[in-house]
Amino acid sequence: MINYRLFFLFTLLSLCFSATAQIAQEIRIDYQRIQEELSQYTTKTISVDEMSAEGGELTGYYKDSILQKIAAVFFGERGKQLMDFYYKDTIPIFIVSTRHSYNRPMYYTKEMAEEYDDDEYFSSEKTTITEESFYVQKDSIIIWLNNDGNPAELEEEEKKMKTQVLISTSQRLQKRLAALKEEDE
């Protein structure tokens, strides 16, 4: 009896992993298509200074007036964040978040460091870059890849919170671009 239960559990888990792998493959195909066609899309770019300490910019990529991608960059004095949202039927399916963390604020020059008896000042060569990728289905992260490209090991609650942040960010960015698009029409 126990062997049947273990077999059933193993089969069920295998099917779940197989389904997730299939969905991830479909998302990769959509991502590749969008990247390959990017130069053919019409674009809308707007400034979003209110969304970060040092400003930012959004670019929406449209195929036949349908949003395919949003490229966002947000600047801060201690770094910048780039976020690329890929869409299928206006729903986010893949998100890449790249964070550039500066060792010191950009304005912190060698002279300023000396004045404050500090041995470190801003250097672009000391910037650390971390990247995370998110495969999304039905407003839920199904795969979260960390900076090493490995699946992140997370508690379900952390995954839910991150999903909410990413989806709400996507919605806010879409609304900003939609407002610009309405102005143009």
Describe the structure.
- The protein is α+β, with helices and mostly antiparallel strands.
- The protein has one domain.
- A hairpin with a 2-residue loop joins strand 4 and strand 5.
- The N terminus is likely disordered.
The total domain count is 1
The percentage of residues in β strands lies in 25-35%
Q: What topology, given as strand order, has the largest sheet?
A: 1-2-3-4-5-6-7
Low-confidence stretches: 1-17
What overall geometry do the principal axes of the alpha carbons give?
Answer: globular
Largest sheet: 7 strands, antiparallel
Number of helices: 3
The N- to C-terminal Cα distance equals: 67 Å
* H/E element order: HEEEEEHEEH
Structural class: alpha+beta
Task: State mean pLDDT (0 to 100 scale).
Answer: 82
What radius of gyration results from the CA coordinates?
21 Å
Q: Write down how many β-strands occur, each being a DSSP E stretch of 2 or more residues.
A: 7
Q: What is the helix content?
A: 25-40%
